């Protein structure tokens, strides 16, 4: 007979440096309501069962801890607050119904697997606080995806777009380097993406990574490799866009999805490093564009492209030849050009980066407001004037929808460079941190009901209500 208990069979077996919470065979740890079970410098050994309810298991302390036992542990919210380079190591598979929240420290899969419920997600992964697993294991989520548009299931980092109904899609993320015929090395991250409907899907896949996972691969040369036979043979899918600031590689027009990873291109794709790109309206009829590079290798130049907010796609404007002698430079180079643009709405710009072999990549997209009028205090329609030459777009944070059901997006406009944004609980706890660019949409999913604070550097705070 099973014994249903809440705070029973908690055996604290103190050894030299650690203790453990052990759930004995036949016992069931039941959590009622949404309390937090805090395990400070303790292991969890589950030989019975855990009924997690809506509670939180929080692992804290200075020492590494393990989640082990003969039974797979199930959590609602698993929170990691490990310091002093300590981490959580899995000794068995785990299931998560709501989220894994990273405050500090790593979760090492250690050859085991993490199974996320269809609505569960990873929260606040960063370079230092994240899932690892060079010894094997994967984190998995299964979701139905009908004509997805930039959907990132579980925040695993595989962002998928397709015009067709993919049906049930199984996504696995692991952290072992890949090898085989056709690939000479890869980063310490792979994705297995298997849709139920996987033929002629014309998909776009954006694969994210952390710098700590590069595994000696040259970041500027990363492309997507795909294997349809479990990693024995690999095909170079190349890439459509790469972004070494936001850490992703994207490829469109993929006929079917399978096992994918990032590795250096066999043809040694060469792009710039340290690119910064900004634009501002100095006159009602002109937009000034500036960018710098830290290094350039085998470069041809930069095609400036523009899209007005009433246009479907970008068009070529001006081609700026690389300043690098022979196309190669190891020092900072600065560029500037002016686009004749009197459009009253929003204008979007990007750089098409072209090397001598005609390989291309793209900069992040920036936006510049059109010529506007500002009231001089009279309030009437005749009391307006044109924008002064040195006036530029004011920073603005837009959130939608607000209030919401825990799923929303936000966009920051009027910024010329990468800007930090942080999402807090009402009591000041950091939930997630972002690096945002002008008009770059960020999505947040799965928040509980309550009030949250979004703070963007240099701007006012925004209250977000989740109902």
The backbone outline, from C-alpha atoms, is globular
The assigned CATH architecture of the largest domain is Sandwich
Structural class: mainly beta
Strand coverage percent: over 45%
How many individual domains?
A: 4
Classified by CATH, the class of the largest domain is: Mainly Beta
What's the CATH topology label of the largest domain?
Chondroitinase Ac, Chain A, domain 3
Unreliable spans: 1-17, 373-392
Q: How many β strands by DSSP?
A: 42
Largest beta-sheet details = 12 strands, mixed
- Rg from alpha-carbon coordinates: 25 Å
Structure description:
- The protein has 467 residues and is mainly β.
- The chain has 4 domains: 117 residues, no CATH class; 124 residues, Chondroitinase Ac, Chain A, domain 3, CATH 2.60.220; 98 residues, Coagulation Factor XIII, Chain A, domain 1 (Distorted Sandwich), CATH 2.70.50.50; 71 residues, Macroglobulin (MG2) domain (Immunoglobulin-like, Sandwich).
- Helix content is 0%, strand content 50%.
- The protein has no helices and 42 strands.
- The strands form 9 sheets. Strands 4, 7, 9, 11, 13, 14, 16, 18, 19, 21, 22 and 25 form a 12-stranded mixed sheet that branches. Strands 2-5-8-10-12-15 form a 6-stranded parallel sheet, with no helix packed on it.
- Strand 31 and strand 32 form a beta hairpin.
- It comes from Lacibacter luteus.
